[in-house]
Extracellular solute-binding protein
Amino acid sequence: MTLACGLLASCSGDDSGKAQLNWYVNPDGVATFQEYAKSCSTDDYDIVVDQLPAGATDQRVQLARRLAAEDSSTDLMNLDPVFVAEFANAGWLAEVPEEKAQEIIASAEGEGEYLSGAAETVIWEDKAFAIPLWANTQVLWYRRSLAEKAGLDMEQPVTWKQIIEAAESNGASVGVQANLYEGYLVWINALVTGAGGAIVEDTEAGRDAEVTIDSDAGRKAAEVVQALAESEAAQPDLSVSNEGTVLGPMWQDPGEFMVNWTFVYANYKGLIGGAGGPADEEAFEDLGWARYPATVEGEESKPPIGGIDIGVGAFSDEPEFAIEAAECITSTEAQVDLALNDGLMPSTNEAYDEVAASGDFPEDLIKLYQESVDTGGPRPKSAFYATISSAIQNEWHSPRSVDPESTPKNSAEYLEAVLEGKKLL
């Protein structure tokens, strides 16, 4: 059966005889992506940008449908790191050429140009299936005046217990992402890994992976969620909170403690004097940052790792052109522009050096980002990640229903049953 071009994507090629590469991008940094679609186009091909839905889950569904149908017009893709294992396992991604792949694999072991946390996200069964573009992480954002009033020494590691109590005793709040979506799983995973555990282990075993969230680490994570949900520091919209909703309280006195991604600094800087931002430059200087809070006092936290990797569709009509374009799109120059234009931090040390030299970001913030990516806690790398994420979200939502004695146990039993095909999501 022949499908009309419009049902999947624009047809390859145009009247000039040049090939057309379709690049599916997430909504962050679209203007910069458009610029690089033009500058990375050549005499042989044009790169056309197609925007994916805003949510990670919807992005995965759209791409998976195209790739499962062996869509030859899906040439380049912006991939959330957790998509890579699933797509690679399904045979939907082209392997990265050997020279670039070896550079990425060496970086995952701490011996290459890429940040190891970013490099690790694109490796599946000892092969590289995408190229890191930008590497995201979460840090603790806060008002310096609030921390000072609460008597917290932010030069030292702080725990979730400390910031919840500090916010509660000073009429402030703690901002997290706890809606029924991927952002909630990010928080849960960071809490579990920060307590020395994991949601699942032996993930390359697929459905036979060992579910390990019913553990001391799982219960420590649940204690944090429960503590915030039951405190006066919880924001009113806790159960539907996301990366955007938690931004507002920062500039409503006395402020907040908030975990969020690297875009926050550039976002607030661009809002100085405007709605939702600091009143003026002096107010902006009250913005502070620190390493992601520790789940357990005395144990180093494991900040979330995110970002975007560039993958090439296994069924592309123009695989060699697509690989060439992917290397251009992920160049040092592109990474630097994404950081300076959009607050999306690089995946390589070389690009980080250029961003630091620009003076657009405080040096200690840049260093914090790099350290957080390289020492963070990635989400489970599994071909069944979407199943794992949905099952855990379902059992841990809403945050106000979380009980350390039952939630980890119930979620482990449910996830095991779903993986074994005994229950449906």
